[in-house]
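On clarity, I found the account of how folds are encoded harder to follow than it need be. Since the whole study asks how a given chain folds, the encoding of that fold should be made plain. For illustration, here is how one protein appears when written out as sequence plus structure tokens:
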Amino acid sequence: MKLRMKHAPRLVVLAIDLMVCAVAVVVAYALRFDFQILDAYYGHHIPWVLAIVLSARLLTFLLFRTYRGLVRYTSSADAIRILGATTVGSILIYMASLLVRSSEVLEIPRSIILLEYIVTNFGLIGSRMIFKAIHAYTVRTVSQEAVMILGNEQSALQVKRTLDRDLGAGVSILGIVEPGVQHRGAKIEGIPIFPLHRLDHVLRDNQVGKLILTNDRMNEAERDRILDICLRRKVKVLSAPNVAKWLQGDITFDRVKQIDINDLLSRPPIVLNSEGIQEYLTGKTVLVTGAAGSIGSEIVRQISKFRPKLVVLFDQAETPLYDIDLELREALGFVDFHLVIGSMTDPVRMRETFEDYRPEVVFHAAAYKHVPMMEDNPYEAISNNVAGTKILTDLSVEFKVRRFVMVSTDKAVNPTNVMGASKRLCEIYVQAHAANGATRFITTRFGNVLGSNGSVVQRFRRQIENGGPVTITHPEIRRYFMTIPEACQLVLQAGTMGEGGEIYVFDMGKAEKIVDLAEKMIMLSGYVPNQDIRIVYVGLRPGEKLYEELLANEENTLPTHHPKILRAKVRDYEPGYVAEKIDELLGLLNEADDFAIVAKMKEIVPEFQSRNSRFEVLDHEPKEQNPSQSAKKG
């Protein structure tokens, strides 16, 4: 479908059109006078008439721009444009004939004007259709791809006409699949219409290369069924923009994109309470930690839409921070921000940032998050995640930050690894400060994010590009997924909720089987799983579990006013106990003893049970009873 051929320059098309008009004048006289036009009178008369006719035609062709369309893709719209130009031109010719009718030399009979008008239209439109047919026959022997369109009549017709205009005979539109149609038989511009329930049969019986989905409203189950059929039949699926944009006439085939894994896993758009978000962001100074990361940077993009006074982007990654700087300025046109390079574990740098900018809202997205790496480096998990969160939390209380929103993870629920347990410790510390007056502390908890740095989707994509194999830890492993914008929108929305101390859980939909994800990505890339690209199982990594959970065993949820956000009902921790134990844990960093650090983590978070890890031996040792840990629900 990437066929591109040279086309005649516009001036050549204009010149040919004028030649057709000249011939039409001669043919009109021949028809009017029984082909007796070569006597001296008419031989002298016709050149003057030609001058008047061609002048009028040139003026209207330029006015209606009839020469600008590609001749080989002539459509009904082009024919209408030509009829408009010739009609206006004939009116001008008639008006000219009235001015010169007193002169026998320049007199133009009305019958000639009418005949010339008819012959000109037949010549201009007919020549284009003949050229289009010849071009179609020629191209058909070179390159042609079978395509089907799925959508309602209006949107499918717009896509069909765009294909005709942009790709012409390079494609063969076999049919239109229209939801709601029950029986086959109808046609649109010669293209047969099929009911949706026959999609599998149509794809099976025809060599269809691509199916174009128009952006119609279809439910998630229906869309997934369509995509599964196409993937099974090895048909590439393309997604067209919203039909409203097609009707505006500013869409070309280049805007039609191939469906990717984000489209397969994404859900209907999230409806935000914009007024609530504006209330706590508009005109405020906002600090975002981890602002150069995949989540932090998207939070910044979302915040920029609500006209904050200033956004402080805090991160230790220099190059990614520079990249988001350029994006905000050049792509989004947002300039009310400042970059701060530093580590959140540096109390001096963090205090300086709070003193300089006095943030009113903090979004805490900075964290080490890779499970195997933190399992090998507990020191860094505590030093960065826990110590950094403690510094940020304490400063937020001291400087009376209005809202503090922390980004957590589903791996903090019944943690089986050091990373998840470190994030649970962060949740506990933040929650313990909920009663500290001015600052409203809010924690958000969600699963894997599509496209984030180091995500399984990125790894699979690289492996597929390299020809495989695609590596999966276990055939039964499942994960929850969200898109980055979806997760960050809910983070902003959660910031409007509660009185402080709440942990909000996002509706992640159903858990996806990772092997199914890998197979879909392979098929979307045009390959056959385990034939073109192998799938290899490599075993669970240290600290990894088959199923992630969004709530601990002893927890449940309460609804909120937003259908995508639930409130986790969790255990309360006595603030003094939390402060004491976190200080003890951070004191162990001086010893740099991994087992001592992890043992203290398990003491504070008793549900932390290591899996596939060297730290499993600690789970068999007796633990100190935790009298300060309340069993009551929050």
In short: The mean pLDDT is 81. Residues 145-259 form a domain with the Rossmann fold fold (CATH 3.40.50.720).
